[in-house]
Amino acid sequence: MTALTPVLSAHWDEKDSFTLEAYTRHGGYTASQKALAMDPDAVIQLVKDSGLRGRGGAGFPTGMKWGFIPQGDNKDHYLVVNADESEPGTCKDMPLLMANPHVLVEGCIIAAHAIRAKHAFIYIRGEVTHIIRRLNQAIEDAYKAGHLGNGVDLVLHVGAGAYICGEETALLDSLEGFRGQPRLRPPFPAIAGLYARPTVVNNVESISAVPAIINNGADWYQAMGTEKSKGATLYSLSGHVNNPGQFEAPLGITLRQILELSGGIRTGHTLKFWTPGGSSTPIFTAEHLDTPLDYEGVAAAGSMLGTKALQIFDETTCVVRAVLRWTEFYKHESCGKCTPCREGTWWLVQIIRDLEAGRGREEDLAKLLDLCDNILGRSFCALGDGATSPITSSIKYFRDEYIAHITNKGCPFDPVASTLFVGAGA
Amino acid sequence: MAYSSEDLAIMDSIVKRYPRPRSAIMPLLHFVQSRVGFVNGEGIETIAKILALETAEVTAVSTFYTQYKRKPVGEYHVGVCTNTLCAVMGGDAIFAGLKEHLGVENDGVTEDGKVSLEHIECNAACDYAPVVMANWEFYDNQTVQSAKDLVDSMREGNPIPPTRGPDTLVTWKEASAVLAGINDGRAHEGVQAGAPTLLGLKISKEGK
């Protein structure tokens, strides 16, 4: 049994965990003092040596990203933290920031020093009032304590309900004061990011992992995880389970292990399908219970680790209904810039809506897959790609269920059976 | 309404947060909502003037983002998550129940102006599904009945407090000010985490 390894979450159970006082009590802001006394390149090297990879989905090595920032170019550099957590199923950064915003603030101080940035921004989604309060207060307190303002300024920027702004170049456009639409790359943000200046964009969890790495060393971090996926991370379990929640564990733990620790699938039911890392990652089934949840293990099994958002659906759930809802989401959130995504997601919805309602034909499945082929890889960003994932993977594993909707001329499932309050008279 | 000199001073301080003024569009739009409740023509003109932009440029930004409203919402704006996971676990039933109970459709406002209703996308609280938001505060683990009780309490002027949020629910305008980056001094209120957030830590401490 792989033991859980609470690092980020270690003190979340203390009632005042979000305050400067509590953070300082547990060694908060000692890592930034240590890092500020180091040469910036040595900080980058330490993070490279730790093996830390991006926790926002793509898994790009964090230290390497920092190393791409040109040095001695006499330009302003910027650090931008992506706190626009909106990928369906993903719910790790928001509870982290509610329980301990200071760890992100300290991570920003260290990362800004490493990339020689004087300005850092946190772009947080707008639909989380209380977390915005906590982060704003943490920044104020860090200024008062002298942690911020002596070389690094940190600005909290609040979004306004656009999923696409979680895409790093759309985020930058949004932060510059434009509609949040992705940019064509190259140039990458490391060369021309915010205000066309060298910019690092990192996820909340990636930056929050840095203080502990500085304090405990690269070897300590390296000792957790698997060969190429080092360290510990937050896995978010949700859906038809007895006990949903956050589980901080070394990379490579399996869903079976997390379910055994947490209390399993909801009693009396069986696992039907699940996402390893949010709705943009191809779905898995019970045959993937022992797939190591690290970057390589999940990719080898045909999906992506993504945000480690483990959304669990049991046998009461109609997979066509689930996929339709996700597809409607992508259609709604497509920014409209690239034709394949804008038009393609619209047509995907039309076809799946008909299928779910029993008005489909078997040829529609081939048409869906053909549409997916024409969307995948043909737009500036990965939103359209993500829209194809649930469709192609669900047809692969549950083709019979799509066919059943056609032959039954309707959905064979009772939606009430999949709710949490079935039988509760609600 | 004309903006008071105090308001204009706040707007100026928002602009000064950024290396380049245009970056302040989004917090300024949140600020307009904190004063007017939605983004009106005067708000657009005021922002355009402050940032030396065309009103069309400010309008283009405000219409891209769903949190900027083009007509008044309720004093309490209720969002029901109907993305897949919440929908399946009860969000669809909650949304249907609230529409019927309030007699409004999606984006509708009750006649008394107290409650507006919207179906929303994933709000990053899936381990607390089904999730309802009010003025973007978390109401966790909702049922059809608890959601009806919530909107009833709003209409009676004494809203049930959020599950993970301040001790009392603030109004839409007050929440918009927080989103504009104005500290209302309530960050210390409420829990630091709910039980699901702490589950892994608890299991770890039990030695598993």
Overview of this protein structure:
The complex is a heterodimer of chains A (426) and B (208). In chain A, 43% of the residues lie in helices and 12% in strands. Chain A is α/β, with parallel strands linked by helices. Chain B has helices at 5-15, 25-36, 41-51, 55-62, 84-102, 144-155, 172-179, 195-205; strands spanning 76-81, 115-120, 132-134, 137-139. In chain B, strands 2-1-3-4 form a 4-stranded mixed β-sheet. In chain B, α3 crosses α4 (55-62) and α5 (84-102) packs across α6 (144-155). The N and C termini of chain B lie far apart (61 Å).
What proportion strand of chain A?
5-15%
Q: What topology, given as strand order, has the largest sheet of chain B?
A: 2-1-3-4
SSE order of chain A: HHHHEHHEHEHHEHHHEEHEEHEHHHH
Number of domains of chain A: 3
Range of helix content of chain A: 40-55%
Count of DSSP-assigned helices of chain A: 18
Main CATH class of the largest domain in chain A: Alpha Beta
CATH topology name of the largest domain in chain A:
Rossmann fold
Specify the overall morphology of chain B.
Answer: globular
E-strand count of chain B: 4
Secondary-structure-based class of chain A equals alpha/beta
- In CATH terms, what is the architecture of the largest domain in chain A? 3-Layer(aba) Sandwich
User: Rounded to an integer, what's the Rg of chain B over CA atoms?
Assistant: 19 Å
Distance between the termini of chain A: 39 Å
Regions with little confidence, pLDDT below 50 for 5+ residues of chain A: none
